[in-house]
Amino acid sequence: MPPGFQQDNAMTEATFAPRVFSGIKPSGGLTLGNYLGAIKRFVEMQGGDFETIFCVVDLHAITVWQDPEELKRATREVAAGYLASGIDPEKSILFNQSRVSAHAELGWLFNCVARVGWMNRMTQFKEKAGKNAEKQSLGLYAYPSLMAADILAYHATHVPVGDDQKQHVELTRDIAAKFNHDYGVDFFPLTTPVIEGPAMRVMNLRDGTKKMSKSGESDMERINMTDDADTIAKKFKKARTDPAPLPESLDGLKDRPEAKNLVDIYAGLSGMSAEQVIAEHGGAGWGQFKPALADLAVEKLAPISSEMARLMDDPAEIDRIMARGAERARAIADPIVSKTSELMGLLR
Ligand code: ATP
Ligand code: MG
């Protein structure tokens, strides 16, 4: 086990090989939040002691209506984002979820393990459904159960995610524990969420109390991984802030969500801690700090977005990579889902 990644399976006797699973929904273009909270960290975990499995979770995207042609394009674009950022299909398994039927199958089995009361506590559903909960798809409500299946179909021990997904990984643990208890087995691991680093919750550029999201309403509230240099500079320039300059110490960011967000983004992009950013830029006004941040974002994102564009010129190659990844994924997931069915008493 690599240092810092303790396996937390006190409730199970079984040992599980260190394996990472994580996914991103093709529900729109990738954002800086997806990059700093997810993809950049996936790349860092690749090639170490973990087997790494990364997925484009298209079955989650369709929990809200997607234009079919646009969904295909967005699925390939998320795959291109993974590849351009450094996910190597030789070192990691990369595929889109719907190609591996084990996800949907185990998702159903887990719908019969998870409790309605658990789903009712999920804050993401409340945020996404708003006042219109009755009109949402049943899939959006049951989404965390499918996410548990995504993770547990591979007996994944660790899931790197942004802070917003913590509750869903905790629910995954609840499902694993209840399954193990109800069937008297030590079959599923209690997966550890890995939520580390300065930019685990990148906030909306227009409202520092809301998360930056692909599916957010306005393009000005997020940085897309495919934005060009001028657009990135413009979006940071227009990002909401308070009038005070950057504080001289971290404490000074308390109750300044927009300022804190820009410091965290700078830290995430540069590999510095927020403290180091403040040590370097404390006292700077926004007229100084915002252009420095924009330059840094362009420096980091431009090579990735040009590689994404190159990859998107050859969609057949992306499809070939995902089809091969799906084959490798099935080889792991199918026996686990078969065993789950057998444990539940389903004749195969
Ligand atoms: P949507 O608005 O459709 O939910 P999203 O931008 O939230 O899209 P997801 O596909 O739901 O993206 O999440 C993919 C991964 O990116 C998850 O690990 C999630 O925690 C992470 N992530 C999403 N938004 C942020 C953010 N603002 N900051 C840090 N991590 C994020
Ligand atoms: Mg999301």
From TrEMBL:
**Gene3D superfamilies named among the record's database cross-references:** HUPs, Tyrosyl-Transfer RNA Synthetase
What EC class does the entry list? ligase
Q: Which GO terms describe its molecular function?
A: ATP binding; tryptophan-tRNA ligase activity
Question: Which biological process terms from the Gene Ontology are attached to this UniProt entry?
Answer: tryptophanyl-tRNA aminoacylation
**Main subcellular localization, coarse class?**
cytoplasm
Q: What is its EC number?
A: 6.1.1.2
Q: Which GO terms describe its cellular component?
A: cytosol
**Keywords, alphabetical:** Aminoacyl-tRNA synthetase, ATP-binding, Cytoplasm, Ligase, Nucleotide-binding, Protein biosynthesis
Provide the reaction this enzyme catalyses.
tRNA(Trp) + L-tryptophan + ATP = L-tryptophyl-tRNA(Trp) + AMP + diphosphate + H(+)
Residues annotated as binding L-tryptophan: D150
'KMSKS' region (motif): residue ranges: 211-215
Q: Organism's domain of life? A: Bacteria
Provide the residue positions that the database annotates as binding ATP: K25, P26, S27, G33, N34, G162, D163, D164, V202, K211, M212, S213, K214, S215
Annotated compartments: Cytoplasm
Give the matching Pfam families.
tRNA-synt_1b (PF00579)
The answer on whether this UniProt entry bears the keyword Coiled coil reads no
Find motif ('HIGH' region) and give its ranges: 26-34
The protein's matches in PANTHER family, at most eight in alphabetical order, are given as: TRYPTOPHAN--TRNA LIGASE, MITOCHONDRIAL (PTHR43766:SF1)
- Family membership noted in the UniProt record: Belongs to the class-I aminoacyl-tRNA synthetase family.
Q: How does it assemble?
A: Homodimer.
Q: What does this protein do?
A: Catalyzes the attachment of tryptophan to tRNA(Trp).
Put simply, this protein is called Tryptophan--tRNA ligase
Q: Which organism is it from?
A: Limimaricola hongkongensis DSM 17492
